[in-house]
Specification:
Layout: H1 3-28, E1 29-30, E2 33-34, H2 40-43, H3 48-52, H4 59-87, H5 91-124, H6 129-138, H7 142-164, H8 179-186, E3 199-204, E4 208-215, H9 217-224, H10 231-242, E5 248-251, E6 263-269
Antiparallel strand pairs: 1-2, 3-4, 4-6, 5-6
Helix pairs in contact: 1-4, 4-5, 5-6, 5-7
């Protein structure tokens, strides 16, 4: 596969991710509230969800379902193009990336359609108590979500390994553009939405910023899927991501992945 073809696929992938963000947004942000991880218990109360989604047309989740599948197809093109390129350099790395990308996009499409269908059913049944129970049952995607997340983690780790080992000829610093380091950066800075998948305490001064993580998404995912040793790779990526910053220093004495009680990030002005 030529570099030009890969660039085209990457552009399509960017468009796919942008479209997917829109599809997720209309499934969670409504005129009278937002569905988030931290308000699930409140949503289960009678009348709360109906009030939150008041005025929303059943066509909205249907639109999200159709466009969401199309978005994942575009994302698949970008993921698989990188896998094909890697396959030309290393059949092992390339095959892993192709299979995991295909699995993620196929199962992810089903996951998205199922979630959209749950809201469609709720709205068509006028949002009564029975409709709410059906919706919450259909939205119970915890296992599917964890599997998809674990598969994508494998894809990203494989890509990082291919970069770090020099197999695909990318400079080592290009690791910072993979999804994993970006996610690691967003979690401690609380740029991502509130979630019970991680727990941390932050503090800061004029010249420093500290994050103590006592529950980590990556550690939990690896632990629950019986591959705790892989979590150390996530920890090592932090050294690559933050260790070479020119104006910001980074230290850490322990991590959950290496058997510590927490991950104690310390950032400071050089």
């Amino acid at each position: 596969m030529t570099v030009t073809a890969i660039k085209i696929m990457f552009v399509l992938g960017i468009l796919g991710h942008a479209l997917n963000m829109y599809c997720d947004r209309i499934l969670s942000i409504f005129p009278n509230g937002t569905i988030k991880f931290d308000n699930i218990a409140e949503i289960k109360k009678d009348g709360v969800l109906a009030k939150m989604m008041e005025g929303v047309s059943p066509e909205v989740p249907l639109r999200s379902a159709v466009l969401g599948v199309f978005a994942l197809v575009l994302e698949f093109l970008s993921y698989v193009s990188l896998g094909i390129y890697t396959y030309e350099k290393s059949q092992v790395f390339g095959a892993i990336m192709f299979v995991t990308a295909a699995f993620f996009c196929i199962v992810g499409s089903g996951f998205h359609v199922k979630t959209a269908l749950a809201e469609y059913v709720f709205l068509k049944l006028d949002g009564d108590s029975r409709a709410k129970d059906i919706m919450l049952d259909l939205k119970d995607n915890a296992l599917i979500l964890r599997i998809c997340m674990a598969v994508m983690v494998v894809y990203i780790i494989t890509l990082i390994a291919a970069i770090v080992t020099g197999v695909i000829g990318f400079p080592v610093w290009s690791v910072i553009f993979t999804i994993l380091p970006v996610a690691i950066l967003l979690f401690p800075l609380k740029i991502m939405r509130i979630t019970d998948l991680q727990e941390s305490v932050q503090s800061h001064t004029k010249d420093s910023y500290d994050v103590t993580i006592t529950k980590c998404l990556w550690h939990t995912a690896c632990q629950e899927n019986g591959c705790e040793e892989l979590c150390r790779l996530f920890c090592d990526v932090d050294d690559v991501t933050y260790g070479g910053l020119k104006k910001i220093g980074f230290t850490r004495t322990q991590t959950l992945g290496y058997g510590g009680d927490c991950c104690d990030f310390h950032f400071f002005r050089k």
